[in-house]
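Before the break, one more example. Copy the sequence into your notebook; we will annotate it together after we see the structure.
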Amino acid sequence: MLNLLPNKKIILFDGVCNLCDSAVQFVIQHDTKDVFRFVALQSELGQEILKHIGINSKNIDSIILYEPGIAYYYKSKAAVEIAKNIGGIWHYGTIFRIIPTGISNQLYDYIAKNRYKWYGKKESCVSPTAELKSKFL
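Here is what the structure looks like once it is written out:
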């Protein structure tokens, strides 16, 4: 059984993707309520969480928002839920819920498929700075 922080929502992300790293930095900057923690999909804990929620890591090319004991979201639904939890002006990002999931996930998949080509890729996962270390599991 996973022993994760209570009352924290976990964002699993591609740790070598520059676009994903930028998205994580954006969420950290706007997470004024300290709601989120972050785990690279490639990490041992990331793989353990995927196994725990029943997702084959070979089939995942997406950000995942995991609310321990409650639910998990991936692709466009994860992005909308993250925006909702950030609050402020970003809460208006939830308007994208009116787009059918199939369509929004197609757009998400197109971006995900091309993210390395467009934004680049790191050789390995980046280590967080000392002040941000508490945000990563």
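The helical segments are 18-30, 44-53, 76-86, 101-119. Residues 16 and 122 are 5 Å apart (CA to CA). Try to locate both features in your own notes.
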